[in-house]
Amino acid sequence: MAEIKYEAAVKRLEEIVKQLESGSCPLEDSIKLFEEGAALVKTCEKLLSEAEQKVKILVGGKEEDFGVSNG
Q1: CATH class of 6-62
Q2: Are 16 and 54 in contact (CB under 8 A)?
Q3: What distances in angstroms separate CA 28 from CA 24, 35, 56, one per listed residue?
Q4: CB–CB of 45/51 below 8 Å?
Q5: For residue 36, what is the enclosing H or E element?
Q6: Taking Cα atoms as reference points, which of 30, 34, 32, 36 lies closest to residue 2?
Q7: Fewer Cβ neighbours under 10 Å: the N or C end of the chain?
Q8: Domain-wise residue ranges, the chain
Q9: How confident is the model at residue 60 (pLDDT cuts 50, 70, 90)?
């Protein structure tokens, strides 16, 4: 997937969810939308993780400062 900003990915995910919830798409189109949505979710998770790491570096914090558990 090409570089996409977090906000754009979330907006597209919202559009996909609306389309899937409407039930108006043929099965093949629904599957394609689902695949696109799954890829966008992975992209969002990656972008959030990268942002979290940058914030940790900037504030010199530890994982527990962000509610992250190690186990």
Answers
A1: mainly alpha
A2: no
A3: 12, 11, 42
A4: no
A5: helix 27-59
A6: 36
A7: C
A8: 6-62
A9: confident
